[in-house]
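From the pipeline queue, job 12 of 40. The input is one protein chain; the requested action is below.

Action: predict structure.
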Amino acid sequence: MGAFNSTGDVLVVRAEPLGHYLRLWRERYVAEHPPPEVDTQAYGGGSLIHFGAVNWLAQETKINKTTVGKICNGRVAQVSLSKADKLLTVIGMSYLLFNEIPVVPNVNWSIHAWALTMASRLSPVDNPVENLALPVENPVYS
């Protein structure tokens, strides 16, 4: 498996299970969209470009095709939650997130930075730290 990518997202998914489902989808895509059999000599001997699964995913998700290829081929260890969500949504498998494809904290973040970021994303009702009453001077004893 490849190196960790430099995602700055606080939540990520492991690339292995994501890549597994993307490869299954890619097999189905290739079966449904086979490259055309064309006599390239009729076109001056040039090669015919087939719009493959990775190119299609890159176009639909606006994620660089090199990145999509690395994810599909297992050459990264983790993928940002936002990219994983885009990829799975486009192929109609977003239901896999948080189930077959677990979402985990980014290992590139320190525990302290991760906790602060996650606490800041909670609403005031959900965040007990921000709801603590600050000591107020008692007007009777002032």
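Job complete. The chain has five helices and three strands.
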